[in-house]
Automatic annotation (TrEMBL):
InterPro entries on file: Homeodomain-like_sf (IPR009057), HTH-type_TetR-like_transc_reg (IPR050109), HTH_TetR (IPR001647)
Keywords assigned by UniProt, alphabetized: DNA-binding, Transcription, Transcription regulation
Pfam family, one: TetR_N
Identification of the protein by name: DNA binding domain-containing protein, excisionase family
GO MF term (any one): transcription cis-regulatory region binding
SUPFAM superfamilies: Homeodomain-like (SSF46689)
Domain HTH tetR-type, residue spans: 11-71
Residues in the DNA-binding region annotation: 34-53
Domain of life: Bacteria
Coiled coil start-end: none
Amino acid sequence: MISIRPSGALTRRQSQLETALVRVVLAEGFAHLTVDELAERLGCSKRTLYALAPSKEQLVTRTVRLFFREAAEQVEDSIRRTRSPARRLTGYLEAVAEALAPASRAFLADVAAFAPAAEIYELNTQLATERVRELISEGIASRAFRDVPALFVAEVVASTMRRIGTGELQRATGLSDAEAYSQLAEVAVAALRR
């Protein structure tokens, strides 16, 4: 994944601003916010924000990319020491729910409506699909899971993940995102177990 970075390393203040910016856009979305409002909220100048990225669109893209990169690292860290294929798959899906929990519906709606952010979201969903396929394949190879088409199961999981992310599943079932991911993990593992 390519990251947008200034030519040098970030200063401590820039790193703090990035973290604060991620929190703001996750909680509220970003379409309605101007760079002036962001600068005021973050207690910095517009120039300081423009040092991170030269336009609001690029600042948003950078922020969305950072959020998903950190979420992916958090998810992988959560299963790093787990050995059981069923626990790895369940842990992965539950960690996805936990990592995405701070993302408000406003943020997800803005991501869907802004093409560069939607591309980042879709890329991360594709990467998650590939990771689920790998976890299923590992379980099949170790004979913990039945020999099923791993890519098909991964695509079913990814489709459900997309519906969770858009809020469709919550509207249809009343389940929170975390509950939906937990149920998805249970269904997937139950379908795969020998």
